Amino acid sequence: MFQYKTDYSLYLVTDSTMLRGMSLEEAVEQAVLGGVTIVQLREKNSTSREFYETAVKIKEITDRHKIPLIINDRLDIALSVDAAGVHLGQKDLPCKAARHILGKHKIIGVSAATPEEALKAQEDGADYIGAGAVFGTNTKTDTRNLNIATLKEITGKLNIPVVAIGGINSENAILLKGSGIKGFAVASGILAQSDIYNAARSLRSIINSFV
């Protein structure tokens, strides 16, 4: 069971292909020091062994800072490293099936682009929703865009936290104020920046202004 409070306010989604000469471990450390509160390991181009070995290294960092490590899609990797939970897309294993495997104490997040998908995930036992893509994204090729009005509709209907995702950075994040979200999920807006620590700090200050 994950023993720390889950704070979704600044949610880092990894993509090592966008790093500027820095290791993923260094980048995650800098992002966490800058204010990231939860990390999702999402490395689509890794072999299973590489993904596992990376997860072990990243979990050392998240454990040290007492924040959750979420594994994208791979329940086997999540279980093998005792991660806090998994994040599932609409084409991944259904939330109900994942809950049956992981048990009631692990965190399960589900991506949603419509109120119907979000409500279904909540009914099936999701702990949070990743809603997007709110501003489009270059890190995924199969995303569906979601406007802020729909985002507000989703947050208004759900009882679980909603995290906005998709092209969020320090320039556009303020546009999400008043949408009802509990946080931003960010990849390039942190990891592709020349100063990861300060990119995270900038987003941290914006989400802090929402409450």
Could you characterize the architecture of this molecule?
It is a single chain. The protein is α/β, with parallel strands linked by helices. It has one domain (10-208): Alpha-Beta Barrel (TIM Barrel), CATH 3.20.20.70. The chain is built from 8 helices and 8 strands. The chain has helices at 24-33, 48-64, 75-81, 95-102, 115-123, 148-157, 188-191, 196-208, and strands spanning 10-13, 38-41, 69-72, 85-88, 107-112, 128-132, 162-165, 183-186. Strands 1-2-3-4-5-6-7-8 form an 8-stranded parallel beta barrel, surrounded by 7 helices. Helix 1 (24-33) packs parallel to helix 2 (48-64) and helix 1 (24-33) packs parallel to helix 8. The model has no long low-confidence stretch (mean pLDDT 95).
